[in-house]
Write a structure and sequence with these properties.
Layout (H helix, E strand, L loop, with lengths): L2 E10 L2 E11 L3 E6 L6 H9 L6 E6 L2 E2 L5 H6 L2 E4 L11 H7 L12 H7 L2 H4 L10 H13 L5 E5 L7 H18 L2 E6 L2 H7 L2 E6 L2 E7 L1 H4 L1 H8 L2
Parallel strand pairs: 3-8, 3-9, 6-7, 7-8
Antiparallel strand pairs: 1-2, 1-4, 4-5, 9-10
Helix pairs in contact: 3-6, 7-8
The protein binds adenosine-5'-triphosphate and magnesium ion (MG).
The site of adenosine-5'-triphosphate has 12 residues, from helix 1.
């Protein structure tokens, strides 16, 4: 079991947003969490990585209870996180942005420069360019590469399709599928983009007002109309 979230509650001064969320990633593969704006997707990601404290429930990484660990310690134990909006340092070079991903490295894992340049060769060619001058899609790939460079075995992705043009969303989908197959990582992806979800996930949990109200898998996940219904008002 790579990630196990059990009965998680968390939120802000205004109250709990997550109302007892449970989900698990057993091994390599891609699990989605879908839901409309404001349903608690980012709150869930921030609580799993440790930027927001859990008020109730537990988070386990490879069996270890990390619920009270700091975010940097969770990251060091092999979790890559791509926040919503990517969190790029626009005024820093592509290479320096990539290097910030190495801080999660605890020395046990080798820096994966060859791996990320293999997936995204443009990052090597544009190493000195300022990250803020890349297109939305290229910035998303840089953010994915930065999360990957420390050699994580779990990736948390918060709406990677946001601000990315459709043809590049397909490319990112292919990248994720290949990554899981070749590197054996587990991916938890939060999305509203039906095309990306259908393309990559093994199953998707539907988040509504901080609760998982349905889980779609197999045929139902390939059915774009059904997926769209779950994302409609
Ligand atoms: N810092 C905050 N302080 C108070 N309330 C917040 C804060 N951040 C988010 N919220 C509220 O918590 C709820 C869940 O927000 P969250 O960002 O988790 O939703 P989301 O599903 O990620 O939405 P989106 O698809 O727009 O990114 C919303 O009602 C939101 O207004
Ligand atoms: Mg969000």
């Amino acid at each position: 079991m790579i990630l196990e979230v059990n009965d998680l509650r968390s939120g802000y001064a205004t109250g709990d947003v997550l109302q007892g969320v449970s989900l698990a990633l057993e091994g390599p593969g891609i699990v989605g969490v879908i839901g409309r704006n404001g349903m608690g997707k980012t709150t869930l990601m921030r609580t799993i990585i440790g930027l927001l404290p859990a008020r109730h429930g537990t988070i386990r990484l490879r069996g270890e209870d990390v619920t009270r660990l700091r975010a940097e310690d969770r990251a060091r134990s092999g979790v890559g996180y791509v926040p919503q909006g990517r969190g790029m340092f626009a005024g820093m070079s592509v290479l320096d942005n990539l290097r910030t991903g190495l801080f999660i490295n605890d020395g046990r894992r080798e820096a994966q420069f060859d791996l990320v340049y293999g997936y995204f060769p443009f990052l090597r060619q544009r190493a000195k360019q300022l990250a803020g001058t890349l297109s939305g899609g290229q910035q998303e790939m840089l953010a994915l590469a930065r999360a990957l460079i420390g050699g994580p075995d779990l990736l948390l992705l918060d709406e990677p399709s946001d601000g990315v043009q459709p043809s590049i969303i397909d490319e990112i989908g292919d990248f994720l599928t290949n990554l899981v197959y070749a590197q054996g990582v587990a991916v938890l992806i939060v999305e509203q983009n039906v095309d990306l979800i259908r393309r990559v996930v093994d199953r998707a949990h539907v988040l509504e007002k901080g609760r998982i109200v349905a889980t779609l898998a197999g045929e139902t996940i390939r059915d774009g109309e059904l997926l769209a219904e779950h994302l409609a008002i």
